[in-house]
Amino acid sequence: MRPALPSLNALRAFEAAGRLGSFKEAAAELHVTHGAISQQVRLLEAWLGAPLFERHNRRVVLTPAARAYLAEIAPLFDQLAQATARYGLSEAVARTLNVNAPATFTLRWLVPRLEKFRARRPDVEVRVETSNEPVESLKDSYDIVIRGGPDTFYGYAMRPFLEEKRLPVCSPALLRRVPLRTPEDLRRHTLLHTSSLPRVWPDWLAQVDMPALMPSAALTFDHFYLTLQAAVDGLGIAMGPTALVADDLASGRLVAPFDGPRLPSRSYCTYVADEKIADDLIVQFRAWLEREGAAFASEPGV
């Protein structure tokens, strides 16, 4: 005889609320009311005979025991989705999600994380096309468009999901050849530019009170991912957005020679046509992006 189990709805509500740290966000993800999440959590607490959350005004915090419980049950939902997909039950509802995003963002931030979403929704084919065209200029209809922002476009709903700042980055090999201890030392280096971002270096130099500084040389590229690759290859120093160079900094391919300042930058946002904002798959993908953005923001050194 199998042991008794709590309600699956109660477990889903607990998993979402615990993962997101919010009953409100859990309700949005599961397409139910805030009250429904609260009720299901109370039912699970009654079934277990122990509290799961500590309530703090508008946020909730897992108890230590509940945190351990969540760590054990959360992977089971992914396993259930994967098993269902393998068995073929998801074929009837297979979906394609069409995403349009900037090339450098896609290559350096989205692609390394996309497998996490595919693990949650193996029944979904995510098709990503890259471009920098303004949202209102796109000729094809996409489910989600990712661009900088926040901006307002008629007929689109915007939500930010990832913040970043810019700071100088370069290869460690370059620093061994030509040390860089203060911004003044940039006079002995090559500054790397992107033609679509002409103000980045001048704005940062103004922040360190050196607007007239002249480097030994400059290189300009037409695509930002080429600028970052040139930095990795030791050709010079680039202004790297924290979100797009985090993996390179963590691996040691790039280093940040200065503690600051960090230049403010636009956030990454999702833009969805008004008629699609209630689509369940689009809601899930946006919520996933927002969780990944929040997780990135909590990483040390970001």
Automatic annotation (TrEMBL):
PANTHER family listed in its UniProt record: HTH-TYPE TRANSCRIPTIONAL REGULATOR, HTH-TYPE TRANSCRIPTIONAL REGULATOR TRPI
State the Gene Ontology terms under molecular function.
DNA-binding transcription factor activity; sequence-specific DNA binding
Residues of the HTH lysR-type domain: 6-63
Q: Which residues cross the membrane?
A: none
Q: Which UniProt keywords apply?
A: DNA-binding, Transcription, Transcription regulation
Q: What is this protein called?
A: LysR family transcriptional regulator
Coiled-coil region(s):
none
Taxonomically, the superkingdom here is: Bacteria
The alphabetized list of GO BP terms reads: DNA-templated transcription
Q: Which PROSITE patterns match?
A: HTH_LYSR
Query: What family is it from?
Result: Belongs to the LysR transcriptional regulatory family.
Q: Where is the signal peptide?
A: none
